[in-house]
Structure formats: structure tokens, C-alpha cells
């Protein structure tokens, strides 16, 4: 096996086995710090030994065994030698059965631990990317425009809080699972959104690494919870949005709106997979299973990606789906997005009246002003549209979006 093949094998093993190794060690030792450090050392050992010894037949088993040995070595180095030896002996020799949740899988336990509601949302995101995704602290810090030392401290404090608060390492009970799953999905969607449209001005406007990681983790949760409709809905939503990424930013670095995108550049394979998931959820809905927020959002995106041209979009179906979503999630942002569809059916004047009613809650949200600017432009109210574009540009941090809004503003008569 060539050096390139070995490197590819190590990369693949990291992608496929990191979460499994960390999860197995966390269950055995009950300590995220030990699990993380031992897993990292095991992969470092693989980088050193596999080129000379060859890739083992069972890379995951080799990594888990090596990580276990690294963890035991660390325990032996701890100051309280006797207590730690006894602890290790108890873990290996008398491992008591843990309460079994609705689903019994170490990786799912790890995900729910990292996304525990006792932790702040930004901490859940960072911890999930590190412990489940295997991203390094510098990678996570760069992803969210935070200093590396600050991100490292955030993750360290999170692990300490889990330990001090005795947050259980288990999948929630069947009764608690729906509520807790929504928190996991929210974390994954936050990661995806930061990649889909980065919020900071000092980074790339679209960050494929983050969207790919969010999709990979969503696939993992989907594999572990195949019957959960919202998990399938979120994965479908991510796939259908990600499919449009090749057409979303121009060569000059400007955001390309949906109505101007080259639909031939969209990823047909991702669209086909997303549509298949949406059809599965529609069949479930027809059988009486009420769809959740992510499933409806996925259905909306399925309508958009089904149209060969923007003029072929079934706006009445989009609006009907938004009406369904508003009943489920009456948030002002959903109402704002609904207004965009309303404008296509009932005209910009009707939509503008709806948007203006959202001013009190969305005055600090750049998309509110961008939507309002576009409606005012369509109504020929150039002076007011210019002011709205200026406000949207002031509030947005994404460089591609800024360029797009500035061009639309400068085209006003």
C-alpha cells in the first residue's frame, strides 16, 4: 500500500471511527477528557505506525484498543494512583449495566451528552464538533471566528461542567427523546447555517467544510434514529440547500439570488436524495404522522429545487407549506419568509404590509431590511428602497451578501 493510500485510510478512519472511539471510551471511563485525549493519541499513533506496519484489517478495533491502552496509561499517571487503579479495575472488571435509553448506541449517547440543555448553545456546538465530529480546537475556533485559546477554554469548561454536574452519559428515555432530539438537531442546523451563509466579515462567505460536517453528523443521527421524521427532515433540508451551493456565489464573490442562479450547476445527486427523503416524509404524513418544522422546510425546498426555472415555481404550494409552518412555528422569521412567497402570488404591496408588521421584532435582522428593500424596489419606491438596502448592508456580515445588496441598491433609478 502506497503512502497516499495509507494517508487516505487514516483520513477515512478518522471520519468513520473518531466518534465511535470517543464514545466507547467515554462510556468505559466516564470522562470526556480522558476519552478525547486517548482517542487523539491513538490516531497520532496510527499516523506513526500504519505507514510502516500497514493498515490493520479492522482499523476501528485497532484504534479503540490503542485508545483504551492510552487511557489506562493516563490513569496510571494521575496523582491518586491507588484510587485511579481501583477505578480502572472497577470499570473493566465490574462494569455495571447502564440504563438503556430508547436507542442503545454509544455515539448517540455522546451526541446527547454534548447537546445537553444544561450547556449554553454555543458550547453545545463547539463540544459536538470536537467530541463527535473530531474537528480540532483551531478548526472550530476558525469556524466561529473565536480565538483559539477562548475556544479551548470553552470546550474545557463544558467538559468540566458535564463532570461536575454529573450529566448522565445516556440516550434520553422514550418520553424525553422528542424534546431532546430537537436540541441536537438545532445544534446541527446552527453548524450548517454558519457554513451556508457565514456571519462574519473576515471569512469566506460560504464554507463547504462546515456544511459537509453538519450533513455528515446528520447522516450519523439518521442512521442511529431512522424512524425519526424530524431527523430525516433536517437531513433532507440540508441536502437540498447544499445542492444549490455551486451556484450561490459568483466568480466575483457576489451572492447569487435564487431567481438568478444557474440551475444546471445544482448538484443533481443531492437533490435526488433530498427529494426521496421528502417523499418518504410525505407518505408518513399521509398516513397520519404530523410533519415537524424541518420536514416542512424540506418540503418547501423540494418545491424550489423541482422547478426547472424560477417561473415554474409552484408558489401556491410554497405558500400553503408556509401557512402550515406558521401554525407550527409562529416566529417572525417564518412570517418574513412567508411574505416572500406571498409577494409572488398577491403582489409586493400585500407582502409589504405583512413585512412592515414585523418591524418591532426584526428591526435588527438584516434579512428583514433586505426583503423590505426588494419589495419597495418592485413597487418603484426607490428612495425608501435605497434606505432599506443601506440598513441591510449595515447589518449583514457576509461579504457576498453585502456585494449583492450593494449592487441591487446601486441599480435603483
TrEMBL record:
Residue intervals of the RNA polymerase sigma-70 region domain: 20-80
Keyword set includes Transcription: yes
An individual GO BP term: DNA-templated transcription initiation
Keyword Glycoprotein included in the entry's annotation: no
Keywords assigned: Sigma factor, Transcription, Transcription regulation
All copies of domain RNA polymerase sigma factor 70 region 4 type, residue ranges: 111-162
Pfam families from the UniProt entry: DUF6596, Sigma70_r2, Sigma70_r4_2
GO molecular function annotations of the record: DNA binding; sigma factor activity
Domain DUF6596: 180-280
Family of the protein in this entry: Belongs to the sigma-70 factor family. ECF subfamily.
This protein's name: RNA polymerase sigma-70 factor (ECF subfamily)
Amino acid at each position: 500500500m502506497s503512502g497516499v493510500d495509507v494517508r487516505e485510510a487514516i483520513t477515512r478512519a478518522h471520519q468513520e471511527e473518531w466518534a465511535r472511539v470517543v464514545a466507547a471510551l467515554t462510556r468505559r471511563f466516564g470522562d470526556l477528557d480522558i476519552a478525547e485525549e486517548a482517542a487523539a493519541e491513538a490516531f497520532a499513533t496510527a499516523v506513526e505506525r500504519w505507514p510502516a506496519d500497514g493498515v490493520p484489517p479492522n482499523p476501528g478495533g485497532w484504534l479503540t484498543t490503542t485508545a483504551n491502552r492510552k487511557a489506562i496509561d493516563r490513569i496510571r499517571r494521575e496523582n491518586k494512583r491507588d484510587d485511579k487503579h481501583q477505578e480502572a479495575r472497577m470499570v473493566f472488571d465490574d462494569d455495571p449495566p447502564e440504563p438503556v435509553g430508547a436507542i442503545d448506541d454509544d455515539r448517540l449517547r455522546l451526541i446527547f451528552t454534548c447537546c445537553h440543555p444544561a450547556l449554553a448553545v454555543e458550547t453545545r456546538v463547539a463540544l459536538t464538533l470536537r467530541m463527535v465530529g473530531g474537528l480540532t480546537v483551531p478548526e472550530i475556533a476558525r469556524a466561529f471566528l473565536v480565538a483559539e485559546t477562548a475556544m479551548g477554554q470553552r470546550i474545557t469548561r463544558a467538559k468540566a461542567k458535564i463532570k461536575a454536574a454529573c450529566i448522565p452519559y445516556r440516550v434520553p428515555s422514550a418520553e424525553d427523546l422528542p424534546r431532546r432530539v430537537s436540541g441536537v438537531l438545532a445544534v446541527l442546523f446552527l453548524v450548517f447555517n454558519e457554513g451556508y451563509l457565514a456571519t462574519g466579515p473576515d471569512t469566506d462567505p460560504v464554507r463547504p467544510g462546515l456544511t459537509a460536517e453538519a450533513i455528515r453528523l446528520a447522516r450519523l443521527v439518521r442512521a442511529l434514529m431512522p424512524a425519526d421524521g424530524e431527523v430525516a427532515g433536517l437531513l433532507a433540508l440540508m441536502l437540498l440547500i447544499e445542492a444549490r451551493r455551486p451556484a450561490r456565489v459568483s466568480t466575483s464573490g457576489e451572492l447569487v439570488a435564487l431567481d438568478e442562479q444557474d440551475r444546471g450547476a445544482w448538484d443533481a445527486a443531492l437533490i435526488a436524495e433530498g427529494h426521496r427523503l421528502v417523499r418518504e416524509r410525505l407518505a408518513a404524513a399521509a398516513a397520519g404522522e404530523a410533519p415537524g418544522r424541518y420536514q416542512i422546510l424540506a418540503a418547501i425546498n423540494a418545491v424550489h429545487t423541482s422547478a426547472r426555472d424560477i417561473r415554474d415555481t409552484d408558489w401556491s404550494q410554497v405558500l400553503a407549506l408556509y401557512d402550515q409552518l406558521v401554525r407550527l412555528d409562529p416566529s417572525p422569521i417564518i412570517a418574513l419568509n412567508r411574505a416572500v412567497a406571498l409577494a409572488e402570488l398577491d403582489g409586493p404591496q400585500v407582502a409589504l404590509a405583512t413585512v412592515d408588521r414585523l418591524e418591532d421584532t426584526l428591526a435588527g435582522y438584516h434579512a428583514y431590511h433586505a426583503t423590505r428593500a426588494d419589495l419597495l424596489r418592485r413597487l418603484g419606491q426607490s428612495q425608501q428602497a435605497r434606505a432599506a438596502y443601506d440598513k441591510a448592508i449595515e447589518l449583514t456580515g457576509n461579504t457576498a451578501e453585502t456585494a449583492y445588496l450593494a449592487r441591487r441598491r446601486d441599480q435603483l433609478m
